[in-house]
C-alpha cells in the first residue's frame, strides 16, 4: 500500500513539474457572414520544454529546424478571420528554416529526411516532395528570430494532395486535451489543488467531428513550429496549430435559415475546458447583425468591444453548448465573400492551346501608403519560361491611369533561377514597392514541354496542378508584422499523346501472342493417335456414315 501511494505521489510531482515548464492555450472564434456561412477558427498554442517529449519537438531537434510551417487544405472558398492566419491554397504547403552547421548531414539531405518524417507523422504523401519541386527562396518567409546567414530555407508544395481523416487524426493527437486525459492536472486558479480527469476529452478539440469538418466548403489545418534556444542545453519549442473550417448552416438545414448551434454544426458539445490551460479558454462569436437575435443556452455571453465579439468562458469538467436564433433568419444570398485585406493577389492563365501560354498576376494595394512586397513564383520544370517577356504595369485603382511601366520601375529587385529538366523547378522572386491605391500587373509567357508518356498521371487529360504564388507583405512600421498571401492554384494542360494507341497495340499484340502460343503449345504437348473401327462406331457423328450407306443401297 505504501509503495502504491509513493508511486502516485511521484507521478503527481512529475506531472506538476512538467505542467509548470510548459504552457497550453486554446481559443475558438466563430464568425458568421450575412450569407449565413459560419467560419470556425480553432487556435492552439503550446510551449514544450527541453525535458518534455513531443513528436514535433523531436523532429525539430533531430533535423536542426529553427522554424517550420505545414498546412493541409481542401477547398477555395475561404473567409479569412485573422490576417496572420490567412487562407492557404489547396493541397500541402511546407517550408522550413534549417541550420547550416548541423552535425548530422547537409541541408538537402535533412530536407529529404524531414519530408519523410512528416509523412509518417501526419499519414500524408509528403515523401513526394523532392528536389524536383523544392525551392530555395532568398527574400520570402523571413523572420526576425531566424538568422539567414546561419540557416537555409526550403519550400515546396503539393497542390494535388487530398486532405482526409487520416491526416486529421494524427494532427489532433498532437493536442494534449484532444485525446483521453488520464492524469492529474495542476490548476493554478483552483488554489494549487490537483484535479483528476479520467477517460474524457476536454477543450474545444472535443468538437472535432470528421463528418462535419469534411462536409465543409473549406477546411485547412496547419502546424507552425518555432524552436528558440537560450543556450546549448536550454531550448523551448513553440507549437501553434490552427484549424479553419467554413460551414454552411443554410445548406445543411432543412429550414434554409441562418440559425445555428454547436450541436447543429459539429454534432457535439464542448466537454469543458482543458485542465492543462494556464489561462482561461474563451469562445468568441462574431455575428453579421447588431440586433434581432438571441443566444440559446444556459450561459449568456459578454460583449467585448475590443474584440468586437461575444465571449464565452469555458469551465473545467462542465459541458458547454450554445446557439444563435434570429428573428429574421433569411440569409443575404447577394452577399459575396470579398476579402477585406488591403493587399490582394489574383493569378490566372492567358493564351490558348497546348503549346504556348502565359501567366498574369494582379496585385492590388488598397492602402493609401506604398507597400513593399515580395512575389515568389515556383513553376515546374516542364513550364519553360521566357524571362524577356516579363512585363510590369501599374495603374491607379479608380482612375485607371497608368502610373509606371516595366522600363520605369526603379524600386524592384528580381532573382531568377532557371529550371533544369527533372532536377529543379523555375523560381522567380521579385521584390517591388506598390504605390498607394494602385493595381500592379505582372505578365510573362512560357512554352509547355512535351514530356514522356510515363511521366503523365493516370488522368493525363486533366492537366497538372501548379502551386500557388506567394506574396510576402513586409511591415510598413514597427507595430506591424510580416504576413503572406497565397494566390489561386493553376491547372495547366500539357501536350498529351494518344494513350489509346498503346492500348490498342498492347491488346492486339497480346491477342496474337495468345493465339500463336496456344496453337504451338497444343501441337507440342498433345499426342496424336489414330482410331480403329470399333472406336469409330461408338462416335455420335458416325450416324452420318450409316445414313450415307443406307442411301447408297437405295
Automatic annotation (TrEMBL):
GO biological process: attachment of GPI anchor to protein
TM region positions: 505-525
UniProt-recorded name of the protein: GPI transamidase component PIG-T
Source species, domain of life: Eukaryota
Signal peptide residue numbers: 1-19
Recorded GO CC terms: GPI-anchor transamidase complex
Pfam families membership: Gpi16
Entry keyword set: Membrane, Signal, Transmembrane, Transmembrane helix
Amino acid at each position: 500500500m505504501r509503495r502504491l501511494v509513493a508511486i502516485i505521489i511521484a507521478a503527481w510531482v512529475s506531472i506538476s513539474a512538467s505542467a509548470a515548464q510548459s504552457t497550453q492555450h486554446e481559443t475558438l472564434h466563430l464568425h458568421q457572414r450575412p450569407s449565413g456561412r459560419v467560419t470556425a477558427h480553432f487556435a492552439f498554442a503550446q510551449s514544450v520544454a527541453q525535458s518534455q517529449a513531443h513528436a514535433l519537438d523531436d523532429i525539430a531537434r533531430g533535423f536542426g529546424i529553427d522554424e517550420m510551417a505545414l498546412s493541409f487544405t481542401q477547398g477555395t472558398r475561404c473567409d479569412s478571420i485573422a490576417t496572420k492566419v490567412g487562407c492557404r491554397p489547396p493541397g500541402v504547403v511546407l517550408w522550413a528554416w534549417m541550420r547550416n552547421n548541423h552535425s548530422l548531414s547537409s541541408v538537402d539531405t535533412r530536407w529529404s529526411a524531414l519530408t519523410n518524417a512528416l509523412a509518417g507523422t501526419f499519414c500524408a504523401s509528403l515523401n513526394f516532395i523532392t528536389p524536383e519541386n523544392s525551392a530555395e527562396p532568398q527574400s520570402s518567409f523571413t523572420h526576425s528570430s531566424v538568422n539567414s546567414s546561419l540557416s537555409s530555407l526550403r519550400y515546396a508544395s503539393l497542390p494535388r494532395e487530398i486532405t482526409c481523416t487520416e491526416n486529421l487524426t494524427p494532427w489532433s493527437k498532437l493536442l494534449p486535451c484532444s485525446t483521453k486525459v488520464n492524469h492529474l492536472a495542476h490548476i493554478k486558479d483552483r488554489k494549487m489543488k490537483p484535479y483528476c480527469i479520467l477517460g474524457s476529452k476536454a477543450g474545444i478539440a472535443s468538437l472535432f467531428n470528421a463528418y462535419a469538418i469534411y462536409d465543409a466548403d473549406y477546411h485547412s489545418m496547419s502546424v507552425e513550429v518555432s524552436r528558440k534556444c537560450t543556450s546549448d542545453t536550454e531550448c523551448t519549442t513553440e507549437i501553434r496549430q490552427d484549424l479553419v473550417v467554413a460551414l454552411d448552416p443554410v445548406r445543411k438545414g432543412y429550414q434554409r435559415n441562418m440559425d445555428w448551434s454547436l450541436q447543429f454544426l459539429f454534432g457535439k458539445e464542448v466537454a469543458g475546458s482543458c485542465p492543462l490551460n494556464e489561462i482561461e479558454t474563451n469562445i468568441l462569436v462574431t455575428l453579421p447583425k447588431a440586433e434581432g437575435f438571441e443566444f440559446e443556452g444556459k450561459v449568456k455571453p459578454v460583449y467585448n468591444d475590443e474584440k468586437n465579439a461575444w465571449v464565452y468562458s469555458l469551465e473545467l469538467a462542465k459541458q458547454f453548448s450554445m446557439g444563435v436564433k434570429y428573428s429574421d433568419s433569411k440569409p443575404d444570398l447577394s452577399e459575396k465573400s470579398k476579402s477585406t485585406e488591403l493587399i490582394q493577389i489574383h493569378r490566372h492563365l492567358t493564351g490558348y492551346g497546348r503549346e504556348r501560354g502565359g501567366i498574369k498576376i494582379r496585385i492590388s494595394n488598397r492602402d493609401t501608403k506604398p507597400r513593399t512586397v515580395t512575389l515568389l513564383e515556383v513553376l515546374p520544370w516542364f513550364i519553360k519560361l521566357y524571362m524577356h517577356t516579363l512585363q510590369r504595369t501599374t495603374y491607379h485603382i479608380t482612375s485607371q491611369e497608368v502610373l509606371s511601366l516595366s522600363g520605369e520601375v526603379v524600386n524592384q529587385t528580381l532573382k531568377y533561377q532557371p529550371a533544369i529538366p527533372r532536377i529543379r523547378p523555375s523560381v522567380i522572386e521579385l521584390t517591388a514597392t506598390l504605390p498607394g491605391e494602385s493595381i500592379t500587373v505582372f505578365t510573362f509567357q512560357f512554352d509547355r514541354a512535351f514530356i514522356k508518356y510515363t511521366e503523365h498521371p493516370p488522368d493525363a487529360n486533366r492537366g497538372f496542378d501548379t502551386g500557388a504564388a506567394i506574396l510576402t507583405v513586409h511591415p510598413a512600421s514597427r507595430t506591424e508584422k510580416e504576413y503572406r498571401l497565397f494566390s489561386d492554384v493553376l491547372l495547366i494542360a500539357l501536350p498529351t499523346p494518344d494513350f489509346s494507341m498503346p492500348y490498342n497495340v498492347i491488346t492486339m499484340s497480346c491477342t496474337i501472342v495468345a493465339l500463336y502460343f496456344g496453337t504451338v503449345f497444343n501441337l507440342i504437348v498433345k499426342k496424336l493417335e489414330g482410331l480403329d473401327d470399333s472406336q469409330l462406331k461408338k462416335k455420335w457423328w458416325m450416324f452420318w456414315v450409316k445414313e450415307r450407306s443406307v442411301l447408297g443401297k437405295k
